[in-house]
């Protein structure tokens, strides 16, 4: 029999998912005297994953959530450029047009992101650091089946037959979120991500090999090569021991959401897609291992979630607004979500003590979160798709004009990087008060 929650107990939140957003949220809520349990369907922490990056804005949010998060990031982060003199530039260049010395004679566009403006790391390494400092246990191997709101709380049923109870549930369970399905309805298209008709070939190259083939400066710096219908990105990872190469290619076929999002591929597939490109891009592709991974790029653009919350159930991060990776902003927007929820539930924890008022206050907090965060996060989903079109010369305004493309990417990027965090917090508190008063 489930124990009843006492009004004198701390607010108890169940977090579904132990990716990046879930642990960050657990760390933030713990600073507000909130009890947390994380439920994760995987049997243990994953040690694999792609590279992720965080802007200065995202790191400011981390510091407000829990300063120890920045220590975790610093321990695994990789600088861009010369380690003794790192830079903050994102570089763009025409990778398609042929010239005698290829990119040596092409204009390189440098977008200054500010001090440590785009700090990257390996997702698995960062997650391992976060799990080490979690204030709560993680219930591994817990695949969520159903969520039911009851008097005074929420009951969760898991696929192994077990049940658990909390004051509220927050789904941080990623792009294939079960909480999103339960929140919006299993027959609703918005409950699921959809294929963008782009695939990403990913491979890791030893830095020594990349430097020998591409030159020291190019290998140690982030660089994006644009061209018709595809683009290639590479950047240093693993404290500059490796170069992460990602090649995006159009795929006009179908890729169902029930299918695994990644599959094995060969270098020959990638080489065929870029056979007509410039010598530098072909050299980058030639560095790839013989076998690599091909990832289907999904997002929530066509069918966005109409709301991020209903009652005492909420979704955040990729579960709420899965984005394609072309802005490199999905993880950072999730960090903003975490700060917003930490702030709102901190107000509930501090000001509301009775069980009836607590239930209403949590609903008001979730409703305020949905209203305030939805516009910005959905804009990022849309702009990320459009950024891909710009990189791949499909944008009607920019076409193959790299000058125009650079200015457009800069405008969009600065909207992501220069976000008014304090303004967001003020708006959240106003919305929370408005909902609570209704």
TrEMBL record:
A Gene Ontology molecular function term of the record: FAD binding
The keyword Oxidoreductase is assigned to this record: yes
Provenance organism: Aspergillus coremiiformis
Origin organism lineage: Eukaryota, Fungi, Dikarya, Ascomycota, Pezizomycotina
Domain spans labelled FAD-binding: 12-347
Entry-linked PANTHER family: FAD-BINDING DOMAIN-CONTAINING PROTEIN-RELATED (PTHR46720:SF3), HYDROXYLASE, PUTATIVE (AFU_ORTHOLOGUE AFUA_3G01460)-RELATED (PTHR46720)
InterPro entries, per the entry: FAD-bd, FAD/NAD-bd_sf, FAD_monoxygenase
Name of the protein in its database record: FAD-binding domain-containing protein
Record keyword Oxidoreductase present: yes
